[in-house]
Design goal:
Layout lengths: L1 E2 H4 L5 E5 L5 E2 L1 E3 L9 E4 L12 H6 L4 E4 L10 E5 L2 H12 L8 E6 L4 H14 L4 E4 L3 E4 L2 E4 L7 H13 L4 E5 L2 H5 L10 E4 L7 H4 L2 H13 L6 E5 L15 E6 L6 E9 L2 E6 L2 E5 L4 H16 L4 H8 L10 E4 L5 E5 L4 H14 L6 E5 L9 H12 L2 E4 L9 H9 L10 E3 L3 H11 L5 E5 L6 E4 L2 E4 L2 H12 L2
Parallel strand pairs: 4-5, 5-6, 6-7, 8-12, 8-13, 9-12, 13-14, 14-15, 15-16, 20-24, 21-22, 21-24, 22-23
Antiparallel strand pairs: 1-3, 2-7, 9-10, 10-11, 16-17, 17-18, 19-20, 25-26
């Protein structure tokens, strides 16, 4: 329970009517959760405007309402008008939960690709170094060994601060979290006190939401603009927009790279299915992870550990024993010598990186099959690009469904097929049913061949017409091979 006066600290109030002495038990932005003792924040979303539900929340007993414009409310209701209710909610949440991020070393990782792997590797590294840590990721949220289901890459500000408060209460010293562009734009991370921020890369994604690539870049950059002078800002300077992220930050600036001069450098010496041999800042390191993209991820993790003051030798020892993150270049080899790889690659750049990794490892005597789809209700512009990359870098391609969501999966496949050039028609199949598409690749593959199943990675479901059906790429692939090899 908090007094309203404490909750509004730091919020720029345009206008207020009613008492400031209300006792608040909960902050809500979903009108269905409003009741006596709650403070309701009316937020205008892309589909629904929370202001339309203010009469309903008052009828449910709510006596404190935040809005972005003046409206008529009963005399016993406190109305607080602010310029941006999303930002106000985030600041109120940090106040309500006693600023938990100030009691943690909170590191945020942003970028198009690599966020989940980097944050998870950081969590695993610091756990093995003996720290009690928190993790906020696309795959799962964790407080030490306790796993909490993840519904968004970055939670809403109330859930986020509640989780951070739980971490503090549980004795966590560090938290590593993914920071999505949506989260920055919607003020989900506003008010948090970050010890550091990491930029991985930026490529074509989420243009259904951000509209232009320039806006997407600026939203990512805004995360670094708001870091404090006590924080560090670490950026990948091999990305052409890497230094853009540091332009206006007050944080201490640091860089990492494979190809460019940087504060933290790595060179790939060997890249095989057995793992990578790296030279990281002058020290040779073997790791179980595979591919140049993982060399970047590992280097970012190493750099963060050094910026937070950890012992270099200890860190290197643990890094060499870390395993791949679920659904990120996760692979197995069958008894018949076929390699199957499951990867979350759902952007053109991510798919290209995975296929480049395969190209660097393969002997050229095998056939590479790529099974890939694109999600519905998401950026349509990347659909033909994904198909074009798959065709250019694979021997055989099977286009299929991903999570069609509310869209017609056949239309999505048609839009992907638009990216298939004439010379690739013969090697490309279009199979609507994802399990059937995987089954086709499995039945066609021979000894030594490589199958990439891209797009869903760690997801254990397929969303069709608003319903999530059980679907696990890795499990299905393993079962299909077992049946084939009996």
């Amino acid at each position: 329970m908090k007094n309203l006066k404490d909750i509004v600290e730091g919020i720029e109030i345009v206008k207020q009517s009613g008492s400031s002495d209300a006792q608040i038990s909960e902050l809500v932005f979903d009108s269905r959760k409003a009741k006596e003792g709650t403070a309701f924040f009316a937020i205008k979303g892309s589909a629904v405007d929370g202001h339309d539900f203010i009469p309903a929340v008052i009828a449910a007993g709510c006596k404190v309402v935040f809005a972005d414009h003046a409206i008529e409310v009963p005399g016993n209701v406190t109305l607080i008008v602010t310029e941006n209710t999303s930002k106000s909610l985030a600041l109120a949440a940090t106040n309500f939960y006693n600023h938990p991020s100030k009691n943690l070393k909170l590191v945020g990782v942003t970028g198009t690709n690599g966020k989940t792997t980097t944050t998870t590797l950081l969590f695993n590294l610091y756990t093995k170094l003996g720290f009690h840590c928190g993790l906020l990721s696309t795959v799962v949220n964790k407080i030490g060994n306790q796993a909490i289901a993840s519904t968004h890459t970055t939670p809403d500000p109330v859930s986020l601060n509640a989780l951070l408060a739980q971490m503090v209460e549980d004795g966590c010293s560090h938290c590593f979290m993914e920071v999505s562009s949506h989260a920055v734009h919607q003020h989900r991370v506003t008010g948090l006190d970050f010890a550091g921020g990491v930029f991985t890369n930026i490529t074509h994604d989420h243009l259904d939401y951000h509209k232009t690539f320039a806006e997407y870049i600026n939203v990512k950059k805004a995360f670094f603009d708001h870091l404090s002078a006590d924080a560090f800002a670490l950026t990948n300077v091999d990305d052409k927009n890497g230094m853009v992220m540091l332009q206006n930050t007050k944080a201490e600036k640091h860089t990492y790279a494979l190809k460019s001069p940087a504060d933290f450098k790595v060179k790939v010496i060997e890249n095989q299915f057995s793992g990578l041999v790296l030279n990281m800042n002058g020290v040779e390191l073997w790791t179980r992870l595979i591919g140049d993209f993982n060399a970047y991820n590992l280097l970012a993790v190493f750099a963060v550990s050094q910026l937070l003051g950890e012992d270099t030798t200890e860190v290197m020892t643990v890094l060499s024993n870390l395993e791949s993150v679920e659904g990120r270049f996760e692979y197995f080899q069958t008894t018949s010598g076929i390699t199957a790889i499951v990867d979350y690659a759902h952007t053109p750049d991510a798919l290209e990186n995975v296929l480049k990794t395969i190209a660097n490892i393969r002997t050229k005597n095998e056939t590479v099959y790529t099974v890939v789809g694109c999600g519905g209700d998401r950026d349509k512009a990347k659909r033909p690009q994904m198909a074009a990359i798959a065709c250019e870098m694979s021997d055989r391609v099977i286009l299929t469904s991903d999570n069609p969501r509310s869209e017609d999966p056949a239309v999505i496949l048609d839009e992907m097929m638009a990216g298939v050039e004439g010379q690739h028609f013969k090697k490309t199949l279009s199979i609507l049913d994802r399990e059937q598409a995987i089954k086709t690749a499995v039945s066609m593959a021979e000894k030594g061949d490589i199958i990439l199943i891209a797009g869903k990675g760690h997801e254990k479901y397929q969303e069709i017409k608003g319903v999530k059906h059980d679907f696990d790429d890795m499990q299905i692939t393993i079962e299909l091979f077992k049946k084939l090899e009996k």
